[in-house]
Amino acid sequence: MLQIEFGADGAIVVVGRLDAAQSPAAQAFLDKVQGTVTVECSRLEYISSAGLGVLLKTQKRLLAAGGKLRLVGVNRHLQDIFQYSGFDQIFEIVPAG
Fold first, then answer.
1. pTM for this one?
2. Domains of the chain by range and CATH?
């Protein structure tokens, strides 16, 4: 189960699991954003390779237009996944406080 929506501060809030089953819905949502986009990940429990692909595709599109994805509130487990995959070099990642 995945919830993805705009939070009160304009950041995108992602809750649950971003896996292959949820990737099309997440991609459709992220395809509509522009500029520098903050994604609040503190309630993101899991991300699969398909979910990483959604973030990568979105990052490439935003960078081409002068924007970027910024991931905030990333927990230790997700930080490890981003590190092992090399994605920590691709995204601005702000760890959970």
1. 0.94
2. 2-95 (3.30.750.24)
